[in-house]
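Q: Sequence in, structure out?
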Amino acid sequence: MTTDRSIVIDSIGVGLATGAYGLSFGTISTASGLSIAQTCVMSLLVFTGASQFAFIGIIASGGNPITGAFTAVLLSSRNMFYGVSLARRLQLTGTQRLASAHFVIDESTAMAVTRATSRQTRLGFYWTGVSIFVLWNLTTFLGALAGTAIGRPETYGLDAAVGAAFLGLLWPRLTSWHARIVALIGAAVALGVVPVTAAGLPIIVGGGAAVVLGMLWRPRSRA
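A: Exactly. Output:
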């Protein structure tokens, strides 16, 4: 039987593992040209790793910040659907929902939706979301300080670290053959349009292709 204590411990463990990625984000962000303040504000207000890495990746490659922002919004739109799913399970009032919306991310959702009771759902959601938020922002700041001392990211291979960190966040979510095929096709489309599009657009095109394919192609459930 799952106890409240075990949920809290598991949630903190997820928070420690995920929050550590903030160190990489902070380092890459300031090494790519953002200030320490800009980097920290992004982690405070955006608080979704995949979107943040996508934005920095576009900026680091010379892309337009507007393109980077659009890509980040596109990637983070999934959190809206998470919120719809969590609203009933968390049993919160309107004000409480508004205050909790910032913590709706992949990890907090995953730790919440599998629980048997509303109390355990809230434990998984808040302990995961808050622990990741605190550590993510702390490690972002530490990484940002390091990034200002490092200088140009390509000197140390940190330009490649953007993609590596993004993949590290993405891979654990590809839990089925269907999701992996969709992701591979999206990546192939993005790579295919690199020679003919401006910096930043390939990820939008590839991501859009993956979304459309994922909506149109649903695997048949076995009877």
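Residues 29 and 56 are 6 Å apart (CA to CA).
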